[in-house]
Amino acid sequence: MVFEAYDESLRRQVALKVISAHLADDPDLRARFTREAQAQASLDSAHVVHVYAHGDAEGRLYIATQLVPDGDSA
Length: 74
Hints:
It is a single chain. By secondary structure, the chain is α+β, with helices and mostly antiparallel strands. It has one domain (about 1-65): Phosphorylase Kinase, domain 1 (2-Layer Sandwich). The protein is about 25% helix and about 40% strand. The chain has two helices and four strands. It has helices at about 20-25, 25-40; strands at about 1-5, 10-20, 50-55, 60-65. A hairpin with a 4-residue loop joins strand 1 and strand 2. It is globular, with a radius of gyration of 13 Å. The protein starts with a strand and ends in an 8-residue tail after the last strand.
């Protein structure tokens, strides 16, 4: 799921992609999710949102990215 969230340390709105805790127990999914974050972070394009952070918070995997207001309204 993707949520709009506020990153208190960076003081800005972010898009927060979160994987459920029960899915995060799968080592293959964890590795794939990490590769997704790394691949997205390696891209430098005006057409790709920037990755600010990724990791595990209380068993939930997340990727925090640049928020594009109304970015998926098509």
